Amino acid sequence: MRRAVASAKAGDPDAIRFLYVTYSQKVLGYARSILKDEHEAEDVMQHVFAKLLTVIGRYDDRGLPFLAWLLRLARNCAIDHIRANRATPVEEIFDPDAACPADTERADAVRAALSTLPLEQRQVVLMRHVMGYSPGEIARRMGRTESSIHGLHHRGRRALRLSLAQMGSAPQTRRAGSGRPRPAAAAA
Question: What is the pLDDT of residues 91-118, one digit of tens each?
């Protein structure tokens, strides 16, 4: 098995095929136990082996069986699948056609401010605040350390806040004890 994994790491398509034939049913069963749906489990299993082509180089045989590492990859893919497909409950349902102009302007300002961020900062801010991922999950997805994610998040939020302030669209906060609003960029 070690030879097959080493060959797959080197890009040998026959070794990848061998790993697929050897482990696909185990990955499918594991995904099925998490998702409780045959079709979704098949989708996840296919995603695991497609992803394997790009991440197999990260596998390091330090006494950890390849199957355990592969099942961890399957678990992460299954959880990502659940997150991507879960409904998000909301108190009210808003009609996008009935949105007030201020909401539309605010959304446009946020989109414009996000577009000014460097790609990695934008990805981290979106994954953290829109998708709801933890810094650890973002680090795993981006192949970075958690501390680097914290730094990107901090710099991204600061740059986003300054960009919104320059556009005159920064959120307003109240001064302690005054009742007068002040821009959030000044509050931080």
Answer: 666 666 665 666 678 888 888 888 999 9
CATH 1.10.1740.10 fits 2-84, yes or no: yes
Task: List the CATH code of the domain at 99-187.
Answer: 1.10.10.10
Domain 2-84 shares a fold with domain 99-187: no
What is the total residue count of the chain? Answer: 188
Please state at what angle helix 66-85 crosses helix 13-35, rounded to 10 degrees. Answer: 50
What are the extents of the domains in the chain? 2-84, 99-187
Q: Is the pTM of this model over 0.90?
A: no
d(CA 166, CA 132): 27
Q: What is the pLDDT of residues 152-178, one digit of tens each?
A: 999 999 998 888 888 887 766 555 555
